[in-house]
User: What shape does this take?
Amino acid sequence: MPTDYSDEAGGAVTRRVPDGPGAPTALIYDNDVLAVAGDAAATERAFAVPAHVSVVAWEDSALCRLGRTDTARAGFRPVPRRGHT
Assistant: This one.
């Protein structure tokens, strides 16, 4: 869902996530501000984080590292340039 990358937007989109059968098992956010706000909104909605839904931030800023330990970062590997390993 498109957002303006603010904490208000992170909470708002998380409050629109369906619950019950078919609910997502992970919420992936493009930045740490969205993820931390989404984590708080998920907790407000009684989603059990991380038991029933994982909250993942694309970045790994101090905001996530110093906040709740159940907000994970998305790991990635650099992709080698063609012809290099």
Notes: The longest strand covers residues 26-29. The beta strands are 26-29, 54-57, 71-73. The mean pLDDT is 82.
